[in-house]
Specification:
The chain has about 150 residues and is mainly beta. The protein is about 10% helix and about 35% strand. The chain contains 1 helix and 12 strands. A hairpin with a 2-residue loop joins strand 1 and strand 2. The relative contact order is 0.21. It comes from Gemmata algarum. Keywords: Hydrolase, Signal.
Length: about 150
């Protein structure tokens, strides 16, 4: 029985086609604008709050949900496709979830939202913003505990 070598031109063409199909079917990622901001609750930094930018208009390509987590000082940098890459230009509802954290055995787990869902809905966002090519910083999110 003769074994055929599959490393010839036909195999190479097959691999090239497979790679082209894998990368060619997905829409290109939209351009992003670097974005930062700050979350304060009752005037104090909200450490480890989660910030989400939900598009207000339907996407004509790849769905996006830019997000961030605040540092100890309440500041954040938005990420969409890569860390700290920002958000595509557009109009967004900015929602905030500020979970409590507790240890469960040796694991840290998220608990209830300290803001009781008040700013965690597109119907009642912390803010609405228009991100443009010129936007680099979101207005401060000064929230109040319910």
């Amino acid at each position: 029985m003769t074994r055929r070598n599959r490393s010839g031109p036909a195999a190479l063409t097959l691999w090239a086609c497979a790679l082209a199909l894998a990368g060619g079917c997905a829409p290109a990622a939209p351009k992003t604008v670097p974005l930062s901001g700050v979350v304060r609750v009752n005037g104090k930094p909200a450490a480890r709050a989660k910030v989400f930018l939900t598009p207000l208009a339907p996407s004509d390509g790849r769905p996006v949900l830019p997000s961030a987590e605040t540092g100890a000082d309440g500041t954040f940098r938005v990420s969409t496709f890569l860390p700290d890459d920002g958000a595509p230009p557009g109009e967004y509802a900015v929602t905030v979830l500020w979970p409590t954290y507790a240890m469960s055995g040796s694991e840290e787990v998220e608990g209830p939202d300290r803001l009781k869902g008040r700013y965690n809905s597109v119907r009642s966002p912390a803010a609405t913003v228009a991100v443009t090519e010129a936007t680099r910083e979101l207005p401060p999110l000064d929230l109040r505990l319910p």
